[in-house]
UniProtKB/TrEMBL annotation, chain A:
Organism of provenance: Brevundimonas bullata
Residue ranges of the TM segments: 7-32, 44-63, 83-103, 123-149
Name of this protein: Uncharacterized BrkB/YihY/UPF0761 family membrane protein
Keywords: Membrane, Transmembrane, Transmembrane helix
TrEMBL record, chain B:
InterPro entries: Cro/C1-type_HTH, Lambda_DNA-bd_dom_sf
Name recorded for this polypeptide: Putative transcriptional regulator
Keyword DNA-binding: yes
Keyword DNA-binding: yes
Keywords: DNA-binding
Domain annotation HTH cro/C1-type: ranges: 5-59
Length: 152, 64
């Protein structure tokens, strides 16, 4: 229990540090933009943000590994069950949308740009990936709650 | 799978929280075990058997 408490505190501190780093990075990019540098079309800025995102994801995976190691076997089973069934269920819902989007009729559907008024292929690819991830996480949350409610 | 965990715990006047601490699991897990809605892994089953100083088969049974 003490190990889990320590991990929660470390995770909160880690999230705070990542948010602070993102804030500083955003500030630096905004400063460079104000100073006249074209940050939004700079390949360097793209790779810098990509590198930051990769480090953030690696840290997230490490926290996930430590978290899974700190919980007991029933809690682990709940997460595995939820990831398989909830994630698969969410993916199945997303799969319907993917199939529908592949039809020629879908070309006429106007999908609103979800950030910075962008409607380019990369923005829509990110929208699709984000939507699929959201559906999978919703399914994961529902399945996780279902697993524990069935074992109260 | 059926088990006698709840009876064995009651005989020792232990709370679920106490048993959870002894086994190194959460109270929710102990509850799930006692209600027979979660079957423990072999390592946890052996741990339970050692704690109660009984053979596994006298705690767990696969009879309906």
């Amino acid at each position: 229990m003490a190990g889990k408490r320590k991990l929660i505190i470390q995770s909160v501190i880690g999230c705070g540090l990542v948010m602070l780093a993102a804030f500083i990075m955003g500030g630096v990019l905004a400063y460079l933009e104000v100073k006249g540098q074209d940050v939004t079309s700079s390949a360097g800025a793209l790779w810098a943000v990509g590198g930051f995102a990769a480090v953030t994801m690696l840290i997230s995976l490490w926290v996930g590994f430590k978290w899974m190691s700190s919980i007991d076997e029933a809690a682990q089973e709940a997460h595995k069950w939820a990831w398989y069934w909830g994630g698969s269920g969410g993916m199945a819902v997303g799969g319907v949308l993917v199939i529908m989007a592949s039809l020629p009729q879908a070309a006429a559907i106007h999908i609103p740009a979800w950030y910075s008024e962008r409607s380019d292929p990369a923005a829509y690819a990110a929208t699709g990936a984000f939507a699929m991830l959201t559906l999978m996480l919703i399914g994961y949350g529902v399945a996780w709650a279902w697993w524990w409610l069935g074992r109260r | 799978m059926n088990n006698r965990l709840k009876v064995l715990r009651a005989e020792r006047d232990w709370s679920q929280a106490h048993l959870a601490t002894e086994l190194g699991v959460s109270r929710q897990t102990v509850n799930a075990l006692e209600t027979g809605r979660y079957d423990p892994s072999l390592p946890l089953a052996f741990k339970i058997a050692r704690l109660f100083q009984m053979p596994i088969e006298s705690i767990f049974s696969d009879e309906e």
